[in-house]
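cron nightly-structures :: item 1 of 1
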Amino acid sequence: MNRPGEIEVEFGVPIPGRILPREAWVQTAVKRLPEPPPLDLQRLFGRHAPVVVDIGCGNGRFVVANAVRHPEHDHIGIDILPVVIRYATRRGNQRGLSNTRFAVCGGFEFVTRWLSPQSTREFHIYHPQPFKDAAQRERRLLTPEFLVAVHRALEPQGRLFLQTDNPRYWRYFQMVVPALFDFAAHPQPWPEDPRGRTRREIIARSKRLRVYRATATARYFADAAQLEELARTLPRPDFDAAD
């Protein structure tokens, strides 16, 4: 149990932000997404600020770190697993991060239902599940339809951050993302997190796995129909992801 003033360490790598006294904790959990959608982000945070969304946020390491470093931005972390969201909310609560919210929700559902067009400054997707079992390939997140939905939710020139340690998923990123975004590989660790931005990255690097990173800036499309056509024509993620 971490005590006030302490810095939490995971796998030998500190998580930014000190644990505050209990009276300074906040509530970062969104226990139920409001109906009907979309989310009223200004009401959710009580202010108007650029929004950063981490899809598949896991235990919240990236969201917490970025919220500590960028108090001028609001942050939302979502994950389909309630157990990891419990860890994430505890970390956000203990650090008094009023610019942070966590919710249990699937990535495709959240982007397509809960986010308004041009509402989001950045999306972060780190180590999406490759689903190596061929029978589960249809569960992969990064489909053309999902990328179109992300593009629609981004502000003009908004950015998508991607990371994986699966080389076949990386090749798929390189194949489809440039159709919608200006794509730039980022071969070195993120400068703010030289020892790892996420729990998965820290583990992958400890196993000497190669980690692939990229940033992608939304391209301008004058005709929304072009995006729908791209979703129909781009290849689907039905590659073999097995080691």
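cron nightly-structures :: done
The mean pLDDT is 95.
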